[in-house]
Write a structure and sequence with these properties.
Chain lengths: ~130, ~100
């Protein structure tokens, strides 16, 4: 694990999450920031600040990135976080994304109170 | 990737990819690459149980599971280790309270 292979995501409150670039790339938005030609400051410093994403949500998103690396099958896009848009989250007391190929233990748990903010962040991040 | 752990210090969280068979020393060496503090100056504590993790044992030996939160403390100038220092975000619940005030 090298420092160059990691990226630092910074929340609205200034909390920092250091994650593997590979994990961050699960987000199409972050992938674009880190790989597009031109002088994105993000790419040069390996830091991305999200003034509109709170710490709790950003941590959940990082957990999702790793969950996605761990369990996502070839059809990983079918388990995208953005899919929670289609779930009736007000009806369910808890919500989980399940990877198709594995059993229940691989569910990605989402606390109901986080759902709305998480959905907005997932939309923004193309995740 | 078999698993990851969340290593927390102050306002920073490091997501570290690892295997259950890795020793704590190997985890500290990975952290060394990120924080410029040698393994010898790091102490890792499993937050769930408060147990100080032993360099020579593996993650599995000490029941450190996927997504576990581990506190990182660093050696101070007087050679002692600092106390656990993890700042918790209160953003979410604060924002909820703020919302309810607007109703």
């Amino acid at each position: 694990m090298k420092k160059e292979d990691t990226v630092k995501l910074i929340s609205a409150e200034g909390f920092e999450f250091v994650i593997d670039k590979e994990a961050a790339m699960v987000s199409q938005t972050i992938r674009n920031m880190l790989t597009s030609p031109g002088s994105f400051a993000e790419r040069e410093h390996g830091e991305v600040t999200f003034p509109e994403i709170s710490t709790t949500i950003l941590e959940k998103i990082c957990q999702y990135f790793y969950w996605s690396l761990q369990y996502a099958s070839l059809h990983w896009h079918e388990t995208n976080l953005i899919m929670i848009k289609e779930s009736r989250f007000t009806y369910s007391s808890s919500l989980a994304l399940a990877s198709k190929s594995r059993g229940k233990e691989t569910d990605f748990h989402i606390e109901p109170e986080l759902t709305l903010e998480l959905m907005m962040a997932a939309n923004y991040l193309h995740t | 990737m078999a698993m990851y752990i969340r290593v927390k210090h102050s306002k920073t969280t490091y997501f570290i990819q690892c295997e259950p068979t890795e020793t704590i020393l190997e985890i500290k060496q990975k952290l060394h690459n990120l924080i410029d503090q040698p393994a010898n100056d790091q102490r890792l504590i499993l937050v769930g149980t408060g147990e100080v993790l032993d360099d020579s044992k593996t993650l599995a030996d000490q029941k450190v599971e996927n997504d576990a939160v581990v506190a990182l403390t660093l050696r101070k100038e007087d050679n002692e280790f600092e106390d656990i220092n993890i700042v918790r975000p209160d953003d979410f619940y604060q924002s909820r309270e703020g919302d309810s005030g607007n109703w």
